[in-house]
Design a protein that fits this description.
Layout: E1 5-10, H1 14-23, E2 28-33, H2 41-52, E3 57-61
């Protein structure tokens, strides 16, 4: 079976990513983000939501 990967940029509006998590079916979440957003409360919320459903986040860190 093919794995469905949701790829999203992550920056200053984590609510958009949370909305996508609820709206789009996916098997794995990959976030593209710079260093600062990964230290924000929004990222911790996303990480907690993924872990609560048994998932995890694959982070692709970029240097903006």
């Amino acid at each position: 079976m093919t794995e469905r990967v949701l790829i999203s940029t992550f920056g200053f509006n984590p609510e958009k990513v949370l909305l996508a998590l609820r709206s789009v079916a996916y098997d794995r979440l990959a976030l593209i983000a710079g260093g600062k957003p990964l230290r924000e409360p929004g990222f911790r919320r996303l990480d907690a939501a993924e872990r609560a459903t048994g998932g995890s986040i694959e982070v692709v860190a970029v240097d903006p």
